[in-house]
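Researcher: Structure prediction, please.
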Amino acid sequence: MKLWASCLLLMSLPLAAQHPAADKPPEKGSAKGIALKVGSDEPVRRAALRLRSAEDDVRNYQATTDAEGRFEIKDIEPGRYSLDVEREGYRVHRLGVGSVWTRNREGVPVTVGPGQKLDIVAYLVPGGVVAGRVLDADGEPVSNAEVQALRYVFYAGKKRLVPVGQTESNDLGEYRLHGLQAGRYYLQAHPQRGWNPAPALAAGSSPDSEPMVYAPMFYPSVAELSDATPLEIKPGEEERVDFFLVPTRAVRVAGRLAGATAEPGTRVMLAPADGLFGGFRENAKVEKDGTFQFDAVLPGSYTLIAFNPSPQGFGHVASQKLDVGTTGVADLALTMAPAGKTAVRGRVRLEGTTSVDPASLLVFLEPAEVDDFRRFMNFSRRGSGTVKSNGTFEFEEVSDGTYRVTVTGRRGMGWSSEIGGLYLKWVTVGNRDARDEGFTISEGRVGGPLEIVLSAAAAQIEGIVLDDQQRPAAGVRVVAAPEEKRRHFASWYKNGVTDQNGKFVMRGVRPGAYTVLAWDSDGDFYGYNDPDKIQKYENKGVNISVNEKENKTVQLKAIKVEEEP
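Model: Predicted structure follows.
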């Protein structure tokens, strides 16, 4: 018996000796480096460096530079990360990882191999500044005027001007916009929302006379965007821009709410037709009998919005397009109706082998028309679309309209999450395909439950981007643009940024035909998914088709593009 036991022990020794080696975890990496100010090589202290995992929501590392501008991060798990360097009032000018440099880029992908030691050098430059004063026609200061820096982005199928920085003037009319990324901006100044200088401008006039207001003004002191000129902002430099607001004759808009009483908290808001991204708005006081009046409105096209609160978000709502002429609008009737009382229910089904937990997902209903009031309504609610562990979800209150379905990760993964490499395979309502065109709620009828299928059989596109000298190009934006007929559907696009080796990986790609392009821009390039831009440079990309579970590798040449205002 002892001999038999000894033989068993001897036989097991080689296996036991090999087993720990097989389970040995990969050696951890590290990163160290320095943050310097461009031009002087002066150390930048208190700069925050963050490594965020591109593969999960757990492996995140950070460090802060010391008095000499140095930092170190130890025990980094091997994998793909996004590197950010941040310091109040500064922007990244150049970022070096090893011997590879990238310009003007934040969120640079880096790959940490087993035992790899990254050497990082971050050159920071103070952000651009626009400063000046907001004055009236007599040269007197206008306080509390809002000044915005605006840039174009391509969003939901359209090119749109959105604010990326804003501030208010002080009692001396002074303002200062700081920390701006280098590039071209449109600038606009307008009075504080709801503020009307009519009493001062029309002293002694009768209450029924037409009021005067300060009209919003674009740089260089023009009233229309079509006449505005973009201002070039350079790193670390300050531009001086003064605004002179001109008194303009305004008109009154008055009406009555119908279909609901004016409950406490009821608001009526007038927004420019293109101003749902934070543009200038006016609010009117609603009386107990439901009447409301805007005392000073500039002629133009607007969206009139009314709503009152409820525990779930809104009780009654109303919206309509409104063209205001030179004589104003009187006796306007706005009918309030119950806010989206339609419940939308559905289920998310995971197809194939995946480690994704359904409870980590969120379902969003995006109005098909981005300027629709329903966007404002739906984004004002919280918690809708949370997927349960059994895959079911429910939206309690949804307004009539046409919607597209988006599924993304929760728990901090954000809108750009790869969701574990899954792709949106099907969205059906009843027996109808709603993946691209969406589905319609009409008179409270949905047409059936939402059935969403996320497939683990997604394709993958990876590769390398080279510059003009055939060197790896780091920090370059790569986009996989679908065939032309699908380029107005944001869900078909995939994009990424090259790491320090010029490499990129795009997971969760829908099977289909794509043009893959690499955009090289000195600043933030917002047109990477602009169909017109893609068509212009299409011949410089690589055309591919991918099937389920297929992995395509491409080599791209960085396309030098200039930012357009």
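Model: Confidence is low (pLDDT under 50) at residues 1-20, 198-205, 379-383, 411-417.
Researcher: Thanks, that helps.
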